[in-house]
Amino acid sequence: MNTANFVSIPASIFPDQEVLVFGDNRWTYGQLWQRVQQIGNALREAGVGAGDRVAVLQTNSDDYVATYFATALIGGVFVPVNYRAKPNELKHILATAKTKVLLCGDRYVSLVDSLRAELPTIETYVALESPQEGMVPFVDLLANAADECPEAAIDDSETTILMYTSGTTSLPKGVMLSHNEFTAYVVNSVEMADGTPRGAALLSAPLYHIAGATNIMTSLFTGRKLVVLPQFDATHWLDAAQKEQVTHAFLVPTMMKMLIDHPEFAKFDLSSLANLSYGGAAMPFPVIRRAIELFPDSVGFVNAFGQTETTSTLTILGPEDHKLGASEEEDAVRLKRLTSIGRPLPDVQVKVVDDEGKDLPAGEVGEIWVSTPRLMKGYANEEGGADSPVRDGWLPTRDMGWIDDQGYIFLGGRKDDMIIRGGENIAPAEVEAVLQSHPAVEEAAVIGFKNEEWGEQVGAIVVLRPGQSATAEDLQAYCHQQMASFKKPEIIHFVDELPKNQMGKVLKKDLRKTYAAV
Question: Which of 107, 125, 154 represents a domain boundary (last residue)?
């Protein structure tokens, strides 16, 4: 079905139920659906038809949410743009998407103006906030828009969102996600709204990220009030969670750390919080361990691992796996599992293969392949088609890892990040997990350094916890006790912080440049 129905169906049954909050703006289903239709009509008046691309360059807002559903309603393709993109990345995204209409926030106007000559497909520029030269004010666009907008006839397999990857190793790729793929995820994750309270979800992840997009769809379809923050801010997050009695939230690791490090964390009432999921990047063990200790006991933690290419979550490590204190034996098992990404969801299959694509047994490191009905259509190419890496229904994730005998999946790092020392494959994530279990270590990133004798050496870039101290020799000795000697880091650099992208993923390419690694 058209994903716009995630709003239209509940709106037709429960028009007076409050479902969206942004600052002082509070929207019922009926009000939100009317806004969606007005924006849909305004976009049609601007020439948007089936398959045309509508891009938004702005932080999260209620109108951002409504514009997605409006674009879906009229059969267009929505392009949520990373507002932290550098000029060459922004030009690449808007040009390769063949954007027809661009809605832009004030802080990005000058950047967009500098690129206009290189964006020939854009016919209409819309100023979302204050009036801007050469842009149609958003309020003027809606001024004469009708309240009712007929739904376009679409095929469920048509693309509804063109979402660009983070581009940590190359220019971002446009992932083509269809109405059907989002529908498969949403209806298998939540039940449709029935008019009863379903809690409140706090959205602070950016809407250009798959976690943000699926959050708005699942929350609005199930009748869970969606509380939207423009961007993550620890104080604003804690305040909103308390004020709106938030029950569900998603965080990336850097957000989690900022919350538990907040000097007034303990003063906020977070007793309403029932489900706190995290993902988007590897969670440092010390951070999740502290979070379990500091958040109320009622909080159920969920590690949700997924990819844009798979329309969000693939595996979860559920609340039971995060509960500690039962016994030393059980805690030992669960502490180890806290470094995993859990087990596959019911509609997901996972296998680990060697370089030739042959299945590997439990415990052996290889590339993780996944299969699910939610696989992307492909990456958008210059010709308007799709390039797909899918092989016989399986997507090579480029993530290395292994599966234990209980079906828990452990990541070993990106395929390009694997270290080969004297013919031995070393998974960076395994070494990072050991380093981060040291009481003095806050975070660690492991990379390969060139070495004439061994080909590569294991190197570590380490951030120490505030007030703690440790030498390279201390950490090397600790690693030697915990793992095979050839895996321990031979080179260790100490830094104040690791370079990361906006979702908290460590930028290892930057570390390699800085430290002359492979």
Answer: 154
Is residue 124 assigned to a domain? yes
Which of the four pLDDT bands, split at 50, 70 and 90, describes residue 280?
confident
Residue 140 corresponds to which tokens in the numbers above? Answer: 């003027």
User: The pTM is what?
Assistant: 0.86
Write down which residue in 98, 129, 154 finishes a domain: 154
Please state the domain count of the chain. 2
Continuous segment of H or E residues that includes residue 30: helix 29-45
Contact 289, 303 (CB under 8 A): no
The CATH number covering residue 129 comes to 3.40.50.980
Q: Report the C-alpha gap between 462 and 446 in whole angstroms.
A: 9
Nearest to 347 by CA among 176, 186, 213, 218: 186
- Of 57-66, 367-376, 384-393, which gets the smallest average pLDDT? 384-393
What is the DSSP secondary-structure string of 397-430?
EEEEEEE-TTS-EEEEEEGGG-EEETTEEE-HHH
Structure confidence at residue 170 as a pLDDT band (50, 70, 90): low
Tell me how far apart the alpha carbons of residues 94 and 100 are, in angstroms, rounded to a whole number. 9
Name 95's Cβ contacts closer than 8 Å, sequence gap at least 6: 118, 119, 121
Residue 304 lies in a domain: no
- Binned at pLDDT 50, 70 and 90, residue 431 comes out as very high
Could you tell me if residue 41 is inside a domain?
A: yes
Of the two residues 510 and 370, the one the predictor is more confident about is: 370
Q: Give the C-alpha separation, 111 to 113, whole Å.
A: 5
In-domain check, residue 97: yes
Using only the alpha carbons of the chain, give its radius of gyration: 23
Tokens of 440: 């003095």
Tell me which H or E stretch contains 251: strand 248-251
For residue 280 the two structure tokens come to 């988007």
Residue 134 lies in domain: 29-154
